[in-house]
Amino acid sequence: MKINQLFTYIKQFQELNKVKSYDDTVPLLEEIEGYLLDNIAQQPSNIDFVCYLASVQLELNRELEKPIQLLENFLNKYENSLTLQDKARIYTNLAYYYHDGCYFDGEPVQLKKAEQYQSAFPQTYSPLGVYYFDKKNFMQAEKYFKKAISLSDTFLTQYNLACVYYALEQYQQAEEKWQILLAENPHNQELLLSLATCTAKLAKKAESLAYLTDIIEHTSIDAFMGNIDYDNIAEVYYELEEYEKVCEIFANKEKYPFSLSNRYDYFYALWATNQQEKFETITQTEYDILKAMLAETKAEEITDDYPVKEKQEAIKCQLEELQEFQQEIKKIKQGIKPPTFFDLYIHPQCDCYLIDCIRHHKQITV
Questions:
Q1: 2 with 145, same domain?
Q2: Residue numbers in the chain where pLDDT is lower than 50
Q3: What pLDDT, on a 0 to 100 scale, did the predictor assign at position 225?
Q4: Structure confidence by residue, pLDDT tens digits, 54-87
Q5: Which residues contact 351 (CB under 8 A, 6 or more apart)?
Q6: CA distances to 27, 203, 338 from 209, in Å
Q7: Domain residues for 11?
Q8: Extended strands (E) in the chain
Q9: Do residues 135 and 9 both lie within one domain?
Q10: Residue 258: what pLDDT?
Q11: Last residue of a domain, one of 227, 258, 289
Q12: What is the structure's pLDDT at 365?
C-alpha cells in the first residue's frame, strides 16, 4: 500500500536524522517530497499525504506560509468530506505551523477549532493548557492538562498538571505528583529543580537542599552553566538563605559572558557573607557598564531608522535602569533583602505537538 511506503520513508528519515547532519538528510527529504506530490496528484483528497507533505516542507525550510497554505487549501476544498477527527487533526497541525511561523495569536484559535471538532488527539490539549497557564488562567490550564492526561498519560502531561498545582499554591499536591514522577525518572534535572523549588516553598529546607545537591552532583559545570538552570538553582539557594552557595554558583557564572547588572540576589549574597570588597568591585563594574551604555546611546546619530523620539525613549529607559541600580545597591547596604530574581517560577512544558511530524512520527489511531 502507498501509505505503508510513506511510513517506510519516515522511518528511514528518522534513522538517518539520528546519525547524520541536516544537509545529509536533504536528499531523502526531497525524495519524500516528490513521492508525496506524485501521490497527491493521484489522490488529492488523501489527508495523510497532505499532512505529511506540510511537515516535509517545514523540514526543508520552505517558506513559513507554505504548510499553512497547503492545509488551509485542503480544508476549503474537502471540508464536506472530512470527518470530525480529520478536521481536528488538521486544525491542530495548523496551530503548530502558526506557532512555528510566529503567528502566535492564530495558534490558540486553531486549537480551539480542533477542540470544537471533539479532537481525540492529546496534542490539541497540552498546548491549550500552556496557553491558558501563560494567561494565568490556571483553572482552564488544569482542565486542558487533565484532558491531555485522559488521552495520553505521559511524563509531560503529569508534570504540567503539577505545574498548575504549584501556580495555585497547592504545593503539597505538586510535590506529591513530582515525587511519583521522580521515582520513575531518577536524576531528572527538571523534576529535581521543580521539587527543590516546591519544597523550598513548603519550608522543607533539608529536602530542598538534597534535591539541589542531586542536580549538581549529576551535572558537569559546563552543562550546568550552559543553560538557565544555574539561575534557578541559585534562586532556590537564595530562598533558603544559603548565601555561600549562591556566591559559589555566581563565581562560576562570572567566567561566562552574562550581565550581572540586575542580579541583586547575588549582590545581597555577597554582602550577607561579608564579601564587601568583592561586592564593591562587581557592583562598580556593572555600574560602569550601564553608564557606558547610556553614553553610547546619547552619542548615537539620529537617522530615518533611528528618529529623535526613539532615541529619547532609549535614553529614558537606560536612565531609569541606572537609577534603579543605584537605589537597589543602597538598599542592600542597609540590609534590605531583594526578592528572588524569577520569583521561584515553574513553567509547564510543551514538546512538539505536530500530529503528522516526520521527525517525531508515532502512528496514532483515532
A1: yes
A2: 1, 225-226, 228, 364-366
A3: 46
A4: 999 999 988 878 999 999 999 999 999 999 999 9
A5: 156, 360
A6: 51, 11, 21
A7: 1-153+355-366
A8: none
A9: yes
A10: 63
A11: 258
A12: 37
C-alpha cell at 344: 521561584
Claim to verify: residue 22 and residue 88 sit in the same structural domain: yes
- What is the number of alpha carbons within 13 Å of residue 358 lying toward its C-beta? 29
- Give the pLDDT of residue 351: 87
Same domain, 127 and 80: yes
Task: Please state, in angstroms and rounded to a whole number, the distance separating the CA atoms of residues 74 and 53.
Answer: 12
Burial 203-242 (b: 16+ CB within 10 A, else e): ebeebbbebbebbbeebeeeebbeeebbbbbbbbbbbbeb
Strands (E), 52-141: none
Whether residue 248 is found in the same domain as residue 290:
no
C-alpha cell of residue 362: 508515532
Domains contained in the chain, number: 3
The pLDDT, as a whole number, for residue 364 is 39
